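Exercise (ungraded).
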Amino acid sequence: MRELGLEDHFAEGCEGAENTAARFELCQQLWDKLKTDTEALQDELNRKVLDSLLDLTRKCSTTRQHSDWASKMRASEIPTAALVLGVNVPDHDMTFQSLSELLQQSVTPHVASVQAKECGTLKHLMKRVLERLTGTAVDDEEEEEEGAEQTSTPLHKSSHCSLSTLCDWYNAKARKSSTGTPGKKRSSPTKDEHQQPPVVIIFKDLEAFNPRVLQNFILICSLYIERLPLMFIFGIATSPSTIQHMLPHSVSSLLCIELFQSLSCTQHLATVIDKLILTPQFPFKLNGKVMQVLISIFLYHDFSVRNFIKGVQLALLEHFHSQPLSVLCCKKKQALLNVTQLGHLDLERVRQLPSFKRYVERQEHQEQVSLLTDDGHLKEVCQRLIKDLRKYHKNYYPVLRCLHTLTSSLPRYPLGKQIRELHLICLEKNVSENEDYQSAMKLLKMLAKDELITLLQRCADILQSVKSKKMRTAHVQLEELLAKFKQLDSVETAPVVEENITSPVRNLQKKTDLFQLQKTLLEMNESRRSKKLSPFEVLRNDALEFIDGLVKSHLCPPESQTLNEACYYSSSATVRRHLNAAPRTSIQAALRTPYYYIQNDSLKTEDGSVSNAAPDICIAYKLHLECGRLINLFDWLEAYATVVSAAEGNDPDSDDYGKVDEVKHSRSSARFIQAVSELEFLGFIKSTKQKTDHVARLTWGGC
Amino acid sequence: MVLLTLTSAASGPCRWNGHWGRRRCHRPVAGGRRSMTALLQHPGYEDESLQRVAEQLPCREAQSAVLLSLMGQPQQYSYPSIFIYGHRASGKSHVMHVLLRELELPHATLSCVECVSGALLFQRVLLSLFGHEAAALLPRSASLSDFVRVYRQQCSLSPAEQTRFIVMEKAELLRDADANLLPALLRLQELVEDNVTVVLLSEIAWDKFRPNTGCFEPLLLHFPDYSKGELQQILSQDRHPSYSADFYSSYINILLGVFYSVCRDLRELRHLAALNFSKFCEPVAEGKVKETDTHKLWRNIEPHLKKAMQTVYLREVSSLQWEQMQQMEEKETGVVRGLSAHTHIELPYYSKFLLIAAYLASYNPARTDKRFFLKHHGKIKKTNFLKKNEKTSNHLLGPKPFPLDRLLAIFYSVVDNRVAPTASIFSQISSLVTLQLLAQVSHEDQLDAPKYKCAVSMDFICAISRTVNFDIVKYLYDFL
């Protein structure tokens, strides 16, 4: 039922209504895959930290049973894990979710996580902890009955809200679990008695907690630590020194804090982009501008990977919603099938695509005619084009990775440090025409032999794993080149070359004069150019030419590919508007051009001026734009009254002008006052005491 | 036996601490226990249990004797309220606890931290004195009069044969509770007409408690800090089972030699002793040194203890990490960085600039903004617009509050490209507040023109501005 509702929403206002169902289906599939993949990826990334955290909890549950001297002396400390997660707070939820799931699966059933906003006072914090712990423990039927009983008498329960209640509950629970298993051997209950699962309390956002509340809570917990195996996990967004800022020594000395650092969010994003964006697996793609918007929101605003994924989701939805040809944005087989099912209207849409138009222009006349008139032929061509687009993607990503491996370690990073930067450059325009690319190539020529060989070797490794004809031949060629490099070692011609070069270098060391230096350098250059290239240099140039060839043939921007509109989402403005909303801009747009919001034709004006039939506040706003820092209210009213009376079609010369004047006047001044107070509410003006009957203007400039 | 004249005590506070101070100086440190047990004699209690009490309370004989005599015989009425104060870990709760437990007196012990509301406190008291049924009689969110009513009802059912004691730890928190709670507790005996004594334990002197409406004055008892000898004696008691008492005692001696100058907290010292003992007996376990060779042992452990003073004592490094470090040390001195070593924070680009702008707004006088952020500000010499109070460094005075408008104005002028005033800029400000890098000065409910303060240090902001290539020192009025 709900599914249907979603689909209805999707179909609402959708372009090309014929295939909405199919598009919705595809969109849903892609999003599900994207979601599961990102979740799996995040789990993978957090595995290390979470595993060590789990180890700690396990250890703290076992050390409690040791009765040796040292651990007895230390038993009063509460084991605490400080988990530093970075400032991307929206992402933390997922981490804590998987953490508590893992804890519950493998270490202890008693896990409670609390957030600062729900624990303003100690009482609330205590209540939340108790609720979560006793609530989660409800697993077998008897327990459930007990739980129901407790909830039916909330009066009684809330007055008992303290850790001693928790202690009793925990002991009852432990006893039940040890006696409730009659199937076990006689010795097992005693063992169970020893194996006390710890009670883990997770503070999701430590910084936001009220320090006093936290201090008191820790003090109380330390009173019970002998009876209750408590353990804390602090989620920290900034730095571990916050603990010291929040807790005085008398409190922090009750804790035994261990530090855990999670992966930084930039690395996280890099992995997400690497695994989910830079892969031919996902047919849906973002074009350069959209990608740029999403990445800059990440880097400039929130550092949140979750929001990045949300952005991708929005783009995905918008794409399938607004682009009827998005039915072709799916796996190869289905895309080919979908091509055959395209209706005439859709084929017309294909003909309208700019990329297709360009394609048609390149064809011969006969072909052009049949493309534009014969639907059957067009379908065949479309199938071929879709295959081509797939091939393009298959080759694009490995070559992109190769180029990245080669250039990412160059000095000053001409093509960027991260692969996403290179990807953006490539999406924008032909990378081989880029100046930075030229300079990167020049720098590559200066690499030492062994460096170049290791880089090329890594490229070969990348190409090896790709299943595509072109990439396979490329790999073979690269291997051949590498083999030749290795042969060079055995031939050994280097000393001869060195002899020639060293002499001017030696001269160079003597010279200190700038002019002389320049001269020698020129000479050196000259001599090098004239000199016959050494075998290594020849081979190096060959290798780089080969790479250049790969780049030129495979890294052309997606816009050059025919039918790219089916897979690439390009409306960056929509994404920006939705994800990075500018409230003031939209308020000003509404005031300046009310037509956009009210959709009333009479408000439409050409030159950006406001029609006098516009709402009062728009007129008042427009008039206030012409004023200086201080606005005289009376002048403003006069101007306003003039505009409004003009709108009502009053001719000052007509007969009954004088009669209605009184009424009109008071009415328009009432409307004016309302408009002014609305403007004040929106923050455009404020009252001032500098001058009587004046208000101060607060905004300038246009944005 | 300490003689007391309770007639004078009833009229006002009395202090015995001067008395004790003198006595303590002359007492031999070791072996004093046996002679002191003579003090703990009271006609109301059996000698055997008094003996047990004395054994468990080393170096607190005088105090327990006073308490005993105050308590009188079990069936006698005691003074309505006793206020015991002394520093952390000076044995206040321990003495009370041991006395009440060993002498088997009816009592309720509770910590005021735990009692978030008065109702919870009342419930606890009734629970431990009269059992569950009595506690259940209290209505939800019980008031003081409810408590008194239920108490009277219960004690008419089971009149006190022995003095009932209510011990409240961390009594300083009672000051924050309802205004009538503390005065009522102080004369609870009168209110409930029962043989009950309230004992308040606190680290704060009574003078800071006295409500301005006046109240019944409790008896004041001061627990002085343990002396070095006493600490030695107490710490030596928890010796390691596999080593001799003398060996452990010499270890404690060395430990106190290092730490006594910085820390006299018994609990903390005990913790440190436990942590470092394995290192101390390492040479003995390896067979290099005999247990009696104190000098060599001292040479071995001393640098180690000094290091512990820098790290574990300040809780820079947790005890678990410290133990791991000790194990690692043989192979490689693995550098475990303390908590305060991690101060670097990754922030989004605009958040960094918002923080920089906030710092500038907090530490520059508002009048100087023109000088820093206007293109044609003309030449304004610093001396010309110095006001008298601005001559002192703003950095010494601490951050000043600034309104949101000013923050944004500075932000737009320091950030190098045009930034639209989007919603996420504003949300970044509030997330900086939750991260405690900014502090909101005005009340949270004030939506109109909220005020903030910058809560980061100079070093921190310099590190942040370096990452965005912004020379913050050039914009700070103090460094002009």
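Further reading is listed at the end of the chapter. For now, observe: Residues 192 and 261 of chain B are 48 Å apart (CA to CA). Chain B touches chain A through 57 residues (CB under 8 Å).
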